[in-house]
Specification:
Radius of gyration: 23 Å
Mean pLDDT: 93
Low-confidence stretches: none
CATH class of the largest domain: Alpha Beta
Distance between the termini: 72 Å
Bound molecules: S-adenosylmethionine
Shape: globular
Structural class: alpha/beta
Number of helices: 19
Number of strands: 13
Number of domains: 4
CATH superfamily of the largest domain: Vaccinia Virus protein VP39
Helix content: 40-55%
Largest sheet: 9 strands, mixed
CATH topology of the largest domain: Rossmann fold
């Protein structure tokens, strides 16, 4: 029997990602997966994300079953083993026989026919050798044991244990292995909540309101990118935590705004929406391909939204000053490990220092363009203080003309009468709270 299209696509995507090329979320929206039927798309998605999430746990277990060190195997063979082992150990609805057979066919089709016997033998052993028992023997009170059991790099586990303690760190690790919820919002001043929900339900979607903030919604079942509202640009898919960031700018229709690091424009489009469709917004990013997607995605809905390709650390090619600037800085993304599990395997501890230098430079440069009395918001999807509070503290100490303001979103639901989302004046919504990406933000105001 031929290899199923879903397995073949997952195999190719995983090899590309391992070589550092792109993110799973982008590759799964490209050909051929975008043309698959729902069942194949679901399986390809499950396999790609599953193997990325469980990579070090799978490698640790496979290493006990293969006589040679795993690094000495051809990368195609290693990837087939990971894919096969993921199906055998984590996917109860795929029969073991089918997983083994498909893996053997896959390794043959990948040009490594001579490894067919090894794949067959190792995956059969994987099923019989007692994975749960092996996991049960890992010392879960150590960063090494936790890093293998929950498949995260040990340096990251170790710093989270130091910061949050064993119990909390363990919950974060477990949650990072659960698929994130898909959140969305209206992207049109004319599309009210009731009409949005009624239209989606009529198209067969099941949705419910997000627990922490009105205006944010969660989809239970269904691919929202196929909905008529998404296709017409009236609905935006955006993590609930990210939906809070543009609100910190307190937008008015008359505001002239800049979104530095706008990427594919999720927050820039929200800025126009919050400015009642009349705020003037420029999205700036150094990545042309992302801005092209941003224009395709938001151009129909917001023709006035402008896009500029530029390096945000260099003098900006813009002559105006802005009422509101958002710096949604490029960051380690440790708050997005559920959605972007590949980050776990790319990020190194040293990157945090390098990123903090870049973030401060983006912030310094943007500050030059804020009008007197204007607002500057700094945001990341990182959980690391080096990229969050420490960048803001360094910025404020070298910019006495800016004052720190408590980040406040009146629509965030308080807990026991307190706003638990604000710590020392910073907005702090970790993934455990958002059920999606974790976000951090700080608000600063220029002197009049
Ligand atoms: C966190 S993402 C932005 C997400 C986006 N704001 C959104 O809401 O969808 C960071 C972005 O920073 C951009 N970037 C990285 N270095 C940059 C630089 N030196 N100047 C401008 N943009 C940069 C990346 O291309 C990426 O799109």
């Amino acid at each position: 029997m031929a290899v199923s299209p879903a397995r073949m696509a997952a195999f190719r995507i995983l090899l590309k990602i391992e070589q550092g090329s792109g993110f799973a979320v982008e590759r799964l929206h490209d050909d051929p997966v975008s043309r698959f039927n729902q069942a194949d798309r679901r399986l390809a998605t499950e396999l790609v994300y599953g193997v990325l999430r469980q990579k070090s746990c799978l490698d640790w277990y496979l290493a006990s079953l293969v006589e040679r060190p795993l690094e000495r195997l051809d990368r195609e063979v290693r990837m087939v083993l990971r894919l096969g082992a993921y199906q055998v150990l984590f996917l109860s609805r795929v029969p073991v026989r089918a997983a083994v057979h498909q893996s053997v066919e896959l390794v043959k089709e990948s040009g490594k026919r001579s490894a067919a016997g090894l794949v067959n033998a190792v995956l059969r052993k994987a099923d019989e050798a007692g994975f749960e028992q092996a996991c049960g023997q890992l010392p879960l009170d150590s960063s090494r044991g936790l890093s293998l059991r929950y498949s995260h790099p040990e340096w990251l586990v170790s710093r989270w244990m130091d910061r949050w303690g064993w119990k909390h760190a363990t919950v974060v690790l477990q949650e990072n292995n659960c698929p994130p919820k898909v959140h969305f919002r209206s992207n049109s001043p004319r599309l009210g909540q009731e009409e949005m929900v009624a239209t989606l339900e009529a198209e067969g979607y099941s949705v419910y309101p997000y627990h922490l903030r009105r205006g944010a919604w969660v989809v239970d079942e269904g691919d929202l990118t196929k909905s008529s509202l998404y296709r017409s640009g009236q609905l935006a898919i955006q993590g609930a935590g990210s939906q809070v960031i543009a609100r910190l700018l307190e937008l008015k229709p008359s505001d002239v705004c800049l979104d530095v690091c706008s990427g594919t424009g999720g927050k820039a489009s929200h800025m126009v929406q919050l400015g009642k469709g009349q705020a003037s917004v420029i999205g700036l990013d150094s990545n042309f391909a992302r801005l092209r997607i941003a224009r395709e995605r938001h151009g129909k809905q917001w023709p006035g939204l402008r896009w500029v390709v530029a390096d945000g650390t260099r003098p900006l090619p813009l002559s105006v000053r802005f009422d509101k600037i958002l710096v949604d800085a490029v960051c380690s993304g440790t708050g997005t490990l559920r959605r972007n599990p590949e980050i776990r395997w790319r990020l190194q501890a040293e990157d945090l220092t390098r990123l903090a230098v870049l973030q401060l430079s983006l912030l310094d440069n943007a500050a030059e363009r804020v009008k007197p009395g204007g607002i500057l918001v700094y945001a990341t999807c990182s959980l690391e203080p080096e990229e969050n509070e420490q960048v803001v503290e360094r910025f404020l100490s070298s910019h006495p003309g800016f004052r720190f303001k408590t980040a406040y979103d009146e629509g965030l639901k308080p807990c026991q009468g307190l706003n638990p989302h604000c710590q020392d004046g910073f907005l702090w919504l970790p993934p455990l709270v958002t059920q999606s990406d974790g976000v951090f933000a700080a608000v600063m105001q220029a002197a009049e």
